[in-house]
Write a sequence for this structure.
């Protein structure tokens, strides 16, 4: 007996669904067939119907367990992603890469990095927006990279620094930077 089921603007027949699952290699293939986004929401939705209809998914690609190169946490990926993934999350990947890119100490900063030394003599080495302490970049307040005066150097995390230079977010961050520079100038004048 073939029943038609409707769920979340999806309409499918039991036999059709079973056949699609049988022909698919993964839950992603099922999502593709029904033209739905490949995400956890639809994976769970279709998995529910797999259970309801008693579909066999033993032929689906199995996950492989890996260890994150940054935090050593175990995580699972599909077999076909086994050789591509090294980190459990984007956060771990960013921290590992940024950590390598940053110099070890301020004494090693020379030449075009001297603005960092000047900045951290007068400012705390933390983002003025979120207070995170690494990785910290230095924003030139007047956009003049030749002006390394302490009042022109603003410590910011990489994320907020990028957002400050992005049109859609500049209006949110610029007032906080202006206020920080104003307070710094007042305190320095005392």
């Amino acid at each position: 007996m073939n029943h038609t089921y409707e769920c979340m603007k999806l309409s499918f027949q039991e036999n059709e669904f079973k056949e699609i699952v049988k022909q698919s290699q993964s839950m992603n293939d099922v999502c593709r067939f029904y033209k739905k986004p490949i995400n956890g929401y639809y994976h769970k939705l279709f998995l529910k119907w797999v259970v309801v209809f008693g579909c066999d998914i033993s032929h689906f690609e199995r996950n492989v367990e890996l260890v994150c190169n940054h935090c050593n946490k175990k995580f699972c990926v599909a077999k076909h992603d086994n050789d591509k993934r090294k980190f459990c999350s984007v956060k771990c990947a960013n921290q590992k890469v940024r950590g390598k890119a940053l110099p070890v100490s301020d004494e090693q900063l020379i030449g075009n990095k001297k603005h960092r030394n000047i900045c951290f003599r007068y400012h705390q080495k933390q983002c003025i927006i979120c207070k995170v302490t690494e990785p910290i970049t230095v924003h030139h307040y007047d956009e003049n990279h030749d002006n390394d005066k302490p009042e022109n150097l603003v410590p910011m995390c990489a994320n907020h620094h990028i957002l400050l230079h992005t049109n859609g977010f500049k209006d949110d961050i610029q007032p906080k930077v202006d206020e920080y520079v104003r307070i710094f100038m007042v305190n320095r004048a005392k």
About this structure: The radius of gyration is 26 Å. DSSP finds seven helices and six strands in the chain.
